[in-house]
Specification:
alpha+beta; five-stranded antiparallel beta sheet; seven-stranded antiparallel beta sheet; single chain
């Protein structure tokens, strides 16, 4: 009678033990997955914060470039008396901003009768300390039909031109963007459209400073894996890359990302760069039609998360070992 009772107890206990084992395994796996999800969510929030920080830094730099150019344009506005005074005004502050390759003042037709229809004095740096003046307006270079000139006349406001490549066979050839502003005389007439031509070297320098700051930030590295790999780039509203670290570039082909860039919206996407998967976080930059993008090519591994996973697996293994011994002993007792 007692042996029969033991057999019934064993038979009824085995399903319970197996159920406990399965439930324990499910709970351990669920805990690990939840922990990993929370870590990814925290990393995502931190990357969003990083791209917003970098965007604000670039916007501040852009604003500084605008203010420097505005000082030059104000000098031109104060010296609209003669062509010579305009040229002197353009030359007066060229040494204050080495990142600007050249300043110009593109005048309305016959504003100065003696200069005719096209008068566009251009002061540009020859090297770090010298500059020269050229008259670039002509029938061949009819700037009155240029998009930037037409836009300036219509908008009555300053703006940054779309990036472009300029080539004339001299040392000033290269990739440029131009900060443009219409200038009016004392009578309220449009006198000229002033511009400051800049290459993207200054953006590259700022990106390097930002990347170094984020890579060396203790707070960021405390919560993001130390072997994570990321860098920043500046992209145009059409998805093309304007400025990037040396040896790294980016071409955005995803249409929904291009729409976000054109509409100056933030977002993230998974993309392929050189046949490798990456994550891009992007945010608009104030004052310009560009966006700052943070490229995460390797999220790295969280050491403590890996240890947690190993620990949970060991706990699960130990639990199964205990249940296996219990079941084995109960079967032996059943046999007796």
């Amino acid at each position: 009678m007692k042996s029969e009772t033991n057999r019934r107890t064993v038979k009824s206990s085995l399903p319970i033990l197996l159920t406990v084992a399965i439930v324990m395994m499910i709970m351990i796996m669920a805990a690990f997955l939840v922990c990993r999800h929370l870590m990814k969510a925290e990393n995502h929030a931190r990357y969003v914060g990083m791209v917003n920080y970098a965007s604000e830094k670039i916007a501040k730099t852009v604003r500084g470039m605008e203010m420097n150019a505005m000082n030059e344009f104000d000098e031109v506005e104060k010296h609209l008396d003669t062509p010579e005074s305009v040229i002197a005004a353009l030359k007066s502050k060229t040494s204050l901003n080495p990142d600007v390759r050249g300043y110009f003042a593109a005048f309305e037709p016959h504003y100065f009768e003696e200069k005719g229809q096209w008068f566009e004095p251009y002061v540009h740096h020859v090297d770090s300390s010298e500059f020269e003046v050229r008259q670039v307006g002509s029938a061949h270079h009819n700037y009155h039909r240029s998009g930037w000139y037409i836009r300036a006349k219509k908008s009555n406001d300053s703006f940054w031109s779309a990036p472009y490549y300029y080539y004339d066979g001299t040392n000033i050839s290269g990739h440029y963007t131009t900060f443009v502003k219409p200038v009016y005389d004392a009578e309220g007439r449009l006198a000229c459209v002033c511009g400051a031509d800049m290459t993207f070297e200054w953006l590259g320098k700022e990106l390097r400073r930002i990347d170094n700051a984020m890579n060396n930030d203790e707070l960021i590295n405390k919560y993001i894996a130390s072997d994570a790999n990321f860098y920043t780039v500046v992209i145009n509203n059409d998805g093309s890359c304007i400025a990037h670290p040396e040896g790294k570039t980016l071409v955005v082909d995803e249409e929904f990302v291009k729409r976000d860039l054109a509409q100056k919206r933030s977002g993230m996407a998974k993309i392929d760069i050189d046949d490798e998967s990456a994550i891009i976080y992007y945010a608009p930059i104030e004052h310009v039609d560009w966006s700052l993008a943070l490229i995460v090519t390797d999220e790295g591994t969280q050491g403590w998360l890996s240890l947690l996973g190993i620990g949970l697996l060991l706990v699960a293994f130990a639990g199964f070992v205990v249940i296996w011994f219990v079941c084995r002993r109960m079967k032996r007792n059943e046999a007796i």
